[in-house]
Amino acid sequence: LRAGRPARQMPFGPDSLTRVIAVTSGKGGVGKSTVTANLAVALAARGLAVGLVDADVHGFSIPGLLGLVDADGLPPHPTRIDDLMLPPVAHGVKTISIGMFLRRGRSDEPLGAVAWRGPMLHRTVQQFLTDVYFGDLDVLLLDMPPGTGDVAISVGQLLPHADVVVVTTPQAAASDVAIRSGLVARQTGQRVVGVVENMAGLTLPDGTTVDLFGSGGGAEVAAALSHEGEEVPVLASIPLSPELRADGDAGTPVVVTHPDDPAAVAITRLAERL
Ligand code: ADP
């Protein structure tokens, strides 16, 4: 990453033809990154030119979810051309993540952790948007950090015209915080285009469904974020899926590996609705 030079012009400004979609959630662990990675792959499979910015700087997980790892199991470094970086591509998705820049320790050490404050986070997100050569994109997805912290505010300033998708679980405790992230996004001028409910009912082999995390969270968030004349829909309800989880761990997105899995079907439909 570059320090101390004037910022290049932002290619995803209001005049750009690229649709920018920031995927956010109120809290961690609701499956935001898993959904974003699979959504990016599903959009690319529809023939769209897709970029994915892993803006979840402290909790980055996109390289692993997309199987973007080298022989040492570490995210690859982007190739540099002059002072532009070429994003690695996985399943047709041009991807950039802080995980690709962290210092590599010895192979028996974990990747360095990110312990940065606001200004450093802001510069990182800004450089992901200006110094990475994505080329012409139809869609740029951002995997946002959960909640309403520094990065959310930076992205709101840098991409005020972005569409926002809010991910929640069906549980009331998750939906309350999800509503707050949607409201903060809207305060920066972004448009909340829909809610994705993840971790909905798990279907057992005997055909019965267990609502492990309750039900109704998606509809609750959508209703709370709707306002005069602008209804916010529930765009998808993605069931709990052992396959989705295992494929995420393996870095082989479920929409590619098990397209008939109910969670994969729901995400593929989400890609068609967006
Ligand atoms: P977040 O980005 O919101 O922190 P992650 O995408 O990292 O959440 O997901 C948290 C965990 O939940 C991961 O282990 C992931 O595999 C799992 N997970 C996400 N969605 C589902 C689902 N629909 N069914 C089963 N496991 C899921």
TrEMBL record:
The keyword Coiled coil does not apply. Transmembrane segments: none annotated. One of its GO terms (molecular function) is 4 iron, 4 sulfur cluster binding. ATP binds at G26, K27, G28, G29, V30, G31, K32, S33. GO terms for biological process: iron-sulfur cluster assembly. Keywords: ATP-binding, Hydrolase, Iron, Iron-sulfur, Metal-binding, Nucleotide-binding. It comes from the Bacteria. The keyword Ribosomal protein does not apply. Binds and transfers iron-sulfur (Fe-S) clusters to target apoproteins. Can hydrolyze ATP. Belongs to the Mrp/NBP35 ATP-binding proteins family. Homodimer. This is Iron-sulfur cluster carrier protein. It comes from Microbacterium immunditiarum. The chain holds residues 94 to 367 of 383 of the full protein.
